[in-house]
């Protein structure tokens, strides 16, 4: 079994990268990818340690993009996973990540202001300290829970932080096609993360978006994901086949920041992610 979608304390997970290696080894996983939002820091920290833990560590990342079509300047949020199977990306890609991190910090500043205007007592200093080194909305959610504004992380998203909630502020994010191109240019393999979430777009728009991303160079789709059912896995395997894509799979583990998710488990039905998925992904690069 493997897990190619894991977040650590370098982004919005609650488990430090080194602990991820230990937990993955204890869970009997063969391969893992740390796929933090906008940063390779978790991968960089664990790369020298993975072999000793008996783990095949894949360099990964998750990018926040938007699929913008004509007449739709904001466009739906699309997460693109990238896997660098032939080695970590170079300086150009890493410099672009610094730019992405700046737009995250800017969004966070505006989100604090928005929450304050709604009467929520929260400061940028608190978020900086609590979400170090790269705060995300789950840190905001946990602070809202700690301060007693909501009872759960889920409620924080529903009432304040989610895309359709009252404190939501959009982040300046690249087009999905740009994300895909940047990954390809850096020698990576772009995979559409948790495709089920695109369902909110409606079936016709979703098909259009996926086709557009395939044309932009998308190479894979995340068929196994902790929010997918057994049926979803089959649906996305079939979609991959139709478009000539490989499949990827991961739990989207965030530790305590997303309770109930188990490392290596690729569906609600607790189906383990087979090692064959990574073997096929690597084989797809060679062909
Ligand atoms: P950000 O990248 O800072 O905009 O935060 C996005 C992250 O928030 C996602 O990667 C998830 O980890 C988390 N998230 C988004 N929506 C929800 C939700 N409804 N419930 C719990 N966590 C969520
Ligand atoms: Fe996240
Ligand atoms: Fe995601
Ligand atoms: Zn994720």
Description of the molecule:
The structure is a single chain. By secondary structure, this protein is α/β, with parallel strands linked by helices. It has a domain at 2-88 and 188-286: Alpha-Beta Barrel (TIM Barrel). Helices cover 41% and strands 15% of the residues. It has a seven-stranded mixed sheet with strand order 1-2-3-4-5-6-7. Helix 8 (203-216) links the parallel strand 5 and strand 6 (220-225). Helix 5 (137-146) crosses helix 6. The two termini are 24 Å apart. It binds adenosine monophosphate, fe (iii) ion (2 copies) and zinc ion. The site of one fe (iii) ion has 4 residues, from loops.
Largest sheet: 7 strands, mixed
Question: What would you give as the CATH superfamily of the domain at 2-88 and 188-286?
Answer: Metal-dependent hydrolases
Tell me what portion of residues adopts beta-strand conformation: 5-15%
Number of strand segments: 7
Spatial strand order of the main sheet? 1-2-3-4-5-6-7
> Which stretches are low in confidence, meaning pLDDT under 50 for 5 or more residues running?
none
Q: What Rg, in angstroms, do the CA atoms define?
A: 18 Å
CATH topology of the domain at 2-88 and 188-286: TIM Barrel
Compute the separation of the termini in Å: 24 Å
- The top-level CATH class of the domain at 2-88 and 188-286 is Alpha Beta
The general outline is globular
* Secondary-structure class: alpha/beta
Bound molecules: adenosine monophosphate, fe (iii) ion, zinc ion
Query: What count of helical segments does DSSP give?
Result: 10
Please bin the fraction of helical residues: 40-55%
């Amino acid at each position: 079994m493997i897990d190619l979608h894991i977040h650590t304390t370098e982004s919005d997970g609650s488990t430090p990268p080194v602990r991820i290696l230990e937990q993955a080894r204890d869970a009997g996983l063969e391969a893992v990818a740390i796929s933090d939002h906008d940063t390779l820091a978790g991968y960089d920290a664990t790369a020298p340690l993975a072999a000793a833990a008996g783990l095949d560590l894949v360099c990964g990342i998750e990018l926040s993009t938007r699929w913008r079509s004509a007449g739709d300047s904001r466009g739906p949020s699309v997460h693109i996973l990238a896997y660098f199977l032939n080695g970590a990306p170079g300086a150009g890609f890493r410099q672009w990540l610094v730019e992405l991190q700046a737009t995250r910090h800017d969004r966070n500043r505006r989100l604090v202001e928005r929450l304050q205007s709604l009467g929520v007592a929260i400061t940028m200093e608190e978020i900086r300290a609590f979400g170090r080194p790269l705060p995300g909305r789950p840190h905001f959610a946990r602070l809202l829970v700690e301060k007693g504004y909501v009872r759960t992380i889920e409620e924080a998203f529903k009432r304040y932080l989610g895309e359709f909630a009252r404190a939501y502020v959009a982040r300046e994010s690249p087009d999905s096609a740009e994300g895909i191109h940047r990954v390809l240019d850096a020698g990576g393999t772009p995979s559409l993360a948790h495709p089920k979430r695109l369902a909110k777009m409606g079936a016709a728009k979703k098909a259009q978006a996926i086709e557009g991303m395939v044309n932009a160079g998308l190479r894979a789709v995340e068929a196994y994901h902790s929010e997918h059912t057994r049926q979803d896995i089959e649906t996305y395997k079939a979609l991959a086949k139709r478009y000539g894509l490989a499949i990827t799979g991961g739990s989207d583990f965030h530790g305590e920041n997303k309770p109930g998710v188990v490392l290596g488990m690729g569906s609600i039905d607790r189906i383990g992610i087979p090692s064959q998925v990574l073997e096929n992904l690597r084989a797809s690069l060679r062909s």
